[in-house]
Amino acid sequence: GAVVSQHPSRVICKSGTSVKIECRSLDFQATTMFWYRQFPKQSLMLMATSNEGSKATYEQGVEKDKFLINHASLTLSTLTVTSAHPEDSSFYICSARLRGRGTTDTQYFGPGTRLTVL
Amino acid sequence: GNSVTQMEGPVTLSEEAFLTINCTYTATGYPSLFWYVQYPGEGLQLLLKATKADDKGSNKGFEATYRKETTSFHLEKGSVQVSDSAVYFCALSAPSGTYKYIFGTGTRLKVLA
Lengths: 118, 113
Prior knowledge:
- The complex is a heterodimer of chains A (118) and B (113).
- Chain A has strands at residues 4-7, 10-13, 19-25, 30-38, 44-51, 57-58, 67-73, 76-81, 90-98, 107-109, 113-117.
- Chain A is mainly beta.
- In chain A, strands 2, 4, 5, 6, 9, 10 and 11 form a 7-stranded mixed beta sheet that branches.
- Chain A binds chain B through residues 4, 6, 32, 34, 41-44, 46, 49, 93, 95, 97, 105-112, 114, and chain B through 32, 34, 36, 41-46, 49, 89, 93, 98-101, 103-106, 108.
């Protein structure tokens, strides 16, 4: 159980276009989803926290107009990279926290999306 | 503030060797502690966790004990395999109600046959 999927797994786009990444919890309802960015051989950097039905909370230094997050349901969150540029190329990973398990704080991670902006 | 310090890698071991990856933390209150593993090109998989002092998390031969007195959560395995080659991340969940994780920098493990 506790499977999180991401789509697409890999995307290549031209500079100036927008890219949408989906994150789904497949067999559980997620109270909260998180979006991370990972640079090569580095740790994960939290970009934003997404709660169903409310606006995402962005970490300091993350442009909310650049990285649009929508948490449409308890099983789906999307990250849209708007007007992408080569410096946005990265590995984007989402995670989800189970709903209805009291104060459980375990996050389950998706497999990641490799974004390359040409 | 909250932080996680992990030993720097890479760590290179021969198959069947004993593994220790050190992790210490700083936190207010009583965080939950986690070890995640990341294989090349993939997301993170939960390896084990502990939610209170003296708890021992274990999975697939890996173990880690929540030591409050030394603020540590070292990862150990008695006999590593080539398939254990991956990057290992220590993380804490701050007891602030936000459920955010603080990650260590990750330790790359390479096991040679």
